[in-house]
Amino acid sequence: MRGPLPFLDRQAVTLTQADAVVQRIADQLPLRGLVQAGSASKLRMRSVVVPLGAMAVAGTAHSALQLEMAPLPDVVTLAFCEAGSADLSADGHRVLLPPCSAAMFLPGCAFHCTTAGIVSVLLHDSAQRLAAAATAMVAPEARENPGLQARFNRPLVLDGSGDARLQATLTSLRRALRLLDEPQLQASGGFEALQLEDLLRRHLVLLLWPDLIDPEPPPPMGPWRDPILEALLEWMDCHLDAPLTLTALALRSGDSVRNLQYRFQRRLGCSPMQWLRQRRLEAVHAELSRGEPGGTVAAIARRHGFHHLPTFSAAFQRRFGILPSQLLRQGKRT
Fold first, then answer.
1. Which residues of the chain have pLDDT under 50?
2. Burial class (CB in 10 A: 0-12, 13-18, 19+), 131
3. Paired sense of beta strands 118-126 and 65-69, if any
4. Average pLDDT of the residues of the chain
5. What residues make up the domain containing 248?
6. C-beta pairs of 254-261 under 8 Å, 24+ apart in sequence
7. Cα–Cα distance between 83 and 61 in angstroms, integer?
8. Are residues 117 and 239 in the same domain?
9. What is d(CA 330, CA 260) in angstroms, rounded to the nearest whole number?
10. Which of 1, 55, 175, 184 reaches 20 to 30 Å from 196, CA-CA?
11. For residue 125, what pLDDT is reported?
12. Residue 244's domain is classified under what CATH number?
């Protein structure tokens, strides 16, 4: 093995028995066969898996192995190396993945992998969720583009060494994965608050469709009414307690993520998620002011999408100049 895992290294499971290694891999992927390279005394694997909604992120370090995987329907996988290299073959494509500068996209297909000592990352996602995120991110007129659809249905080698946009996206993805190294965030609902699952999924879309990084500028919007934005704002006001993401808002509006962000910035001077946060704070303020019997700050905050109480309290005080607990006490006295 070639060093620590890129995230949660201290929480990783260490395995040295062949049966345990086989079971650990089979828990993530449909394993057809495993052949160890080298002597049995050198077999070693360290692994950690982090679930994120419909997504799972696995970090693994292991000694030399050959793996044969069966197809995994309705699941897509992105594989890349942090240290060492991997020889991957899938559907007639073969690539030697170097560390950090390349990845391979595997849309539920069978594949074969041969490695020496390696540290790797696998992102497993729902094919349906990834397709929905892609639909939300592209402009409406591009959603039926056959080139876009094709890139999600076949194995792809994503080599950033000759493509600055791909390399920048891979680097950004690796930095985003470092957030997983904060177990307190996971325990307190911080991953949900940061919409980490949605962020990682949008990185996958950008890797598969890098033209989204530099698209045509959105058309200018005049001073007239914007029925798309008005309808979305009304819907958001009715769903402040729902786990909304930027991707979900774009799908609801029928617009691309980029155009939706432009609409909000032009009309409201903020991003969609900033507007949603302010509306949620206002809803919490109204409920605390009523001081209904049995109500607590934590329960009211969670009901409106705030899962990390210290962060919520600080934001509430900045917005209204009073602590939520003080406002609740005032509401109960009136």
1. 40
2. middle
3. unpaired
4. 83
5. 217-334
6. 254/140, 254/228, 255/140, 255/228, 256/136, 256/137, 256/138, 256/139, 256/140, 257/136, 257/137, 257/202, 258/137, 258/139, 258/212, 258/215, 258/218, 259/139, 259/218, 260/232
7. 9
8. no
9. 39
10. 1
11. 92
12. 1.10.10.60
